[in-house]
């Protein structure tokens, strides 16, 4: 169950980061509220995952899901442009996250 909490924590990280962009400097009330709720849910899910997972595993995976997810949202929703080399490094991030998961005993 801890891994499920961790995945949701990472997904809510993407939600709040994307909502913060849409909040236009916290001037749009709906997106500002979405940012705050996303942050709270992300931290709650992370804290639940930390009951069973070591910090050294949970934290990098949480931030990695948030980073990769935000890059994908940036490209798909905000039309951010990335070079093929950037996508290679995003792929390496994903490989690193999978490697952490596969090599941990939890």
UniProtKB/TrEMBL annotation:
Pfam families to which the protein is assigned, alphabetical: Multi_Drug_Res
Q: Which InterPro entries match?
A: EmrE-like (IPR037185), Small_drug/metabolite_transptr (IPR000390), Small_multidrug_res (IPR045324)
Q: List residues traversing the bilayer.
A: 27-50, 57-78, 84-103
Q: How does it sit in the membrane?
A: Multi-pass membrane protein
Where it sits in the cell: the answer is: Cell membrane
UniProt entry keywords in alphabetical sequence:
Cell membrane, Membrane, Transmembrane, Transmembrane helix, Transport
Major localisation: membrane
Q: What family does this chain come from, according to its entry?
A: Belongs to the drug/metabolite transporter (DMT) superfamily. Small multidrug resistance (SMR) (TC 2.A.7.1) family.
Protein's recorded name: QacE family quaternary ammonium compound efflux SMR transporter
């Amino acid at each position: 169950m801890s891994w499920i909490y961790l995945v949701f924590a990472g997904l809510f990280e993407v939600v709040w980061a994307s909502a913060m962009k849409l909040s236009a400097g916290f001037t749009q009330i709906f997106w500002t509220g979405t940012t705050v709720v996303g942050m709270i849910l992300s931290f709650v899910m992370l804290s639940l995952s930390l009951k069973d997972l070591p910090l050294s595993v949970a934290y990098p995976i949480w931030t990695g899901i948030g980073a990769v997810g935000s890059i994908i949202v940036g490209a798909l929703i905000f039309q951010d442009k990335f070079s093929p080399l950037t996508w290679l490094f995003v792929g390496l991030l994903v490989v690193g996250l999978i490697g952490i998961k596969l090599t941990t005993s939890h």
